[in-house]
Design goal:
alpha/beta, four-stranded mixed beta sheet, globular
Length: 211
């Protein structure tokens, strides 16, 4: 803990205004992102009002949890981390995707990360008074193989943890923001960020599991 209101992510220069609850995959993601983005412009374990709700939520059900947000010269990057192994099958328009293990002997269904992160992207867009470029980034663990993944929207990007830096470098989008403008985006995002309770975090995990 740096002070009474700022907590440092162990092994990084990234901080949070409350103690973040990160999975091992999310911790690895933050560690990688600090080598690409300014650590002060990285927001791990970020809670925002759900799209369509009031910007001053009155209950935990009004919130959505985002694994990580990073601000860069190109725009705002919204990250969803998936620490899954096996072969990954899915389409961008399906509700669920499937991870296949042990040569097909074991299968695990999980909520479509494209749809999941689309909600996060909309939540980020909602807090700004003017349109901002927001990029949906789905990051899979290195033990997974995207065996058959299709119909992914052009606004969504899939990659593995190991090639995240290269994938971001290859994005064909112009630089839009100066350091001053990035500070303004940071202030807006920081003001909209919600300090969650433990109950909120447990509700989020239960909701994703149920899906």
């Amino acid at each position: 803990m740096i002070n009474d209101s700022t907590y440092k992510i162990r092994g990084t220069k990234v901080t949070s205004p409350y103690p973040p609850t990160l999975t091992p995959a999310e911790t690895r993601l933050v560690f990688s992102l600090q080598k690409i983005f300014d650590p002060t412009l990285i927001f791990p374990d970020c809670y925002l009002p759900k799209p369509g709700t009031h910007l001053a939520p009155t209950s935990e059900s009004d919130l959505t949890q985002i694994d990580c947000i990073a601000l860069g010269e190109q725009g705002i990057f919204v990250f969803e981390s998936k620490d899954l192994g096996g072969w990954i099958y899915g389409r961008g328009d399906q509700i669920h995707w499937t991870a296949v293990f042990d040569y097909g002997k074991e299968k695990h269904r999980f909520y479509n990360p494209v749809k999941q992160n689309d909600t996060h992207v909309k939540a980020v867009q909602t807090i700004f008074p003017h349109p901002v470029p927001v990029f949906s980034m789905i990051v899979f663990g290195n033990d997974s193989i995207l065996k058959q993944v299709s119909a992914i929207p052009a606004t969504c990007h899939l990659c593995h943890q190991s090639n995240l830096r290269q994938h971001l470098a290859n994005l064909d989008v112009p630089k839009r923001y100066s350091s001053t403008q990035l500070s303004e985006l940071k202030n807006t995002l920081y003001a909209a960020r919600i300090n969650p309770t433990n109950f909120t975090r447990l509700n989020h995990i239960a909701e994703i599991t149920a899906r």
